[in-house]
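Help needed: design a sequence for this.
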């Protein structure tokens, strides 16, 4: 058995299967579990094609590659779905940094800081009716007195102080965006697993092992026949 070629062949089969899985999941919005079964079949065929001989070891290689490929396909499907619904991390970051050049956006951060300080002192903030505090970013979203205080604070800053504050906000935004995408990716990946996955994973593993092992036997049979002759 050629170990290197069997790994390459199995990896190619797994890559094709993972891409198909991720693509279908992304464009249909559904994760079709039986595709995992197909991934196992592709990996098994790839290992058998590349190995050209071996035994149970080839089947074990196929099983490992199958598991890695299925996980990769699931993760890629989650990432593609996030891109479709929200956009890429870089796009979201650039949009936020562009908005940061607007004075009202910066003042909204100052207003949030003032609110945080007051709440820490036990004060209850009276938000305008119908406003979700988590989504507040416009002057009308904040209590007038707080917005006025934040605007006065911004107006009282020198040009250098404003640039320094914007730089601080940029670092905070970069960290927040990175954390947000990391959290949502982790959450989406964890929640992509269901009870039926156990069945399809088992079928994929069994199929990969069986095909790789069986095809190996067939591949070595002609040599045995020639020895008999």
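Sure. Designed sequence:
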């Amino acid at each position: 058995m050629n170990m290197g070629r069997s790994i390459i062949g199995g990896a190619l089969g797994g890559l094709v299967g993972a891409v198909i899985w991720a693509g279908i999941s992304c464009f249909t919005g559904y994760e079709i579990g039986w595709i995992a079964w197909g991934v196992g079949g592709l990996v098994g065929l790839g290992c058998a094609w590349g190995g050209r001989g071996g035994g149970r070891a080839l089947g074990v290689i196929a099983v490992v590659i199958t598991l890695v490929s299925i996980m990769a396909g699931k993760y890629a499907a989650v990432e593609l779905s996030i891109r479709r619904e929200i956009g890429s991390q870089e796009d979201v970051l650039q949009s936020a940094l562009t908005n940061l050049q607007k004075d009202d956006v910066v003042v909204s951060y100052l207003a949030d800081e003032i609110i945080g300080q007051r709440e820490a002192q036990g004060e209850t903030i009276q938000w305008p009716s119908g406003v979700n505090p988590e989504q507040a970013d416009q002057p009308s979203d904040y209590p007038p007195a707080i917005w006025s205080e934040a605007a006065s604070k911004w107006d009282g800053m020198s040009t250098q102080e404003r640039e320094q504050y914007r730089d601080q906000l940029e670092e905070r935004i970069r960290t927040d965006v990175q954390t947000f995408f990391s959290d949502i990716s982790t959450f989406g990946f964890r929640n992509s697993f269901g009870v039926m996955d156990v069945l399809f994973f088992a079928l994929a593993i069994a199929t990969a092992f069986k095909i790789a092992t069986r095809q190996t036997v067939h591949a070595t049979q002609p040599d045995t026949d020639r020895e008999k002759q």
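Residues 195-228 form the longest helix (34 residues).
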